[in-house]
Amino acid sequence: MNSLIHPVILCGGSGTRLWPLSRSGFPKQFLVLSGDGSNQSLFQQAIDRIHSVGGKEITFGKTLIVTNEEHRFLALDQLRELKDVQATLLLEPTGKNTAPALTLAALYAQDSGESQEDPILVVTPADQTITNPAAFTKALQSAIAIAKKGAIAILGITPTSPQTGYGYIKVKGDAVNNAYTVEHFVEKPNEATAKQYLEEGGYFWNGGMFVLKASVWLSALKEFRPDIFGATETAWVERTTDQATFVRPDKTIFNTIPSESIDYAVIEKCPGSQYPIKMVELDGGWNDLGAWDAVWQVGKQDEQGNVTSGDTLITNSKNSLVHASTRLVSAVGVENLIIVETADAVLVADRKNSQDVKHIVNQLESQQREEKNLHRKVSRPWGWYDSVDEGDRFKVKRIQVKPGASLSLQMHHHRAEHWIVVKGTAEITNGDQVIMLNENQSTYIPQGQIHRLANPGKTPLEIIEVQSGSYLGEDDIVRFKDTYGRS
């Protein structure tokens, strides 16, 4: 009998230790970081890895993306680049860790009506990399076979060093049909304990990848954490659906759900309980890219151990990562450094201290600096804008609008705008007038005027926008009509 599989991609998190490339408005799972030569983001790779397991006995249902409301269009844009993937986005109004996220996916899987049988959930974070996809496919096939029989399967990563940043899985005995019996789970150890684990054997890293039936998860959660189950189920019952792509649980109820991980809520309580849990070993070059040192480890290193990306020049340097986003970055006589350049920030760090980048992000947050949240180039559902210059009472933006897309019908209280078309054709609502502008033509939007920018063409539209006024903040927008449901 075919098994209905729902890939569940847990797409939360902000990736603070990969600042300045990862920002809260564009977190690491949407970045191309793996260094394998592909142009796929970590999020896209996670989806493709699961779909590579397909076979005669497997039918894929909807791919379920659990992500923050703020990131819905980032996820949707990247999903459109994948072939033959039908997805639904389950949108969390606030992050509540992974247990409520998986519960939303399980409730969807049971309610979707895609099959009469109990669907199997293949659960993975969106921000990992695996260098041996064949090993992952083999391990996942074994895990699916375990889940078919009603047990919970967890992928355990073969440890390669005494890591202190991961939780560990302790197994007992030898594997039977590629499956170990899980004895217990242990918290992130100190270095001495981690070395002891490797010497003893029988310990594996917990990579946060699970395979189980939707009914098993809901039953176990109801037993171990009825508070999370009850609140999440109530928020799900009161959900709303937008164009069959976005599903939103009730915001007020969802905000009352306790924040808890899959592991703490259920998985760590399963050994010895009525919910059998098995572990399948994964020796596939796994890495969660939790910090820049991990990006260096999985990158393509030259003869001196350097990993480079973008426009870089390096001489007499060793074991360093140099990432250039917008300009030439050069390094001379450096060793074991992380150098990351973006349009508005530069990071220089010792590789061994790359975990501490999060402290810089904390300082940015305490100072309420925008560099924590957004890049200079900001993605929007209609395209993007790049703030190329600004000063007292003026700001200059480069704006690109996708074919057929439009910005909201809006007004600004404190600024006027000048628009110059540099590529494509613009349809502009300016008060009571609707005009068409082509390349090298321009218009002026007075302060307080209702206006809209749209691209009626089949190629991207680009304009230069010059703002002038007493206040130029992004919150000086009054929206009257918006295609994307923004207030």
Report on the structure:
It is a single chain. This protein has 3 domains: 285 residues, Alpha-Beta Complex (Spore Coat Polysaccharide Biosynthesis Protein SpsA, Chain A); 64 residues, no CATH class; 105 residues, Jelly Rolls, CATH 2.60.120.10. Strands 21-22-23-30-25-28 form a 6-stranded antiparallel sheet, with no helix packed on it. By secondary structure, the protein is α/β, with parallel strands linked by helices. Strand 22 and strand 23 form a beta hairpin. Helix content is 22%, strand content 35%. Helix 3 crosses helix 6.
Topology:
Layout lengths: L2 E9 L30 H10 L6 E3 L2 E6 L3 H8 L7 E6 L5 H14 L8 E6 L3 E2 L2 H16 L3 E6 L10 E9 L2 E8 L4 H10 L2 E11 H11 L1 H12 L2 E3 L3 E3 L2 H4 L7 H4 L11 E6 L3 E2 L4 H7 L8 E3 L2 E4 L5 E4 L4 E4 L4 E5 L4 E5 L6 H10 L10 E4 L2 E9 L2 E8 L7 E3 L3 E9 L2 E5 L2 E5 L4 E4 L5 E4 L6 E9 L8 E4 L6
Parallel strand pairs: 1-2, 1-3, 1-5, 3-4, 4-12, 7-13, 15-17, 16-18, 17-19
Antiparallel strand pairs: 5-10, 6-14, 7-10, 8-9, 8-10, 9-13, 11-12, 19-20, 21-22, 22-23, 23-30, 24-31, 25-28, 25-30, 26-27, 26-29
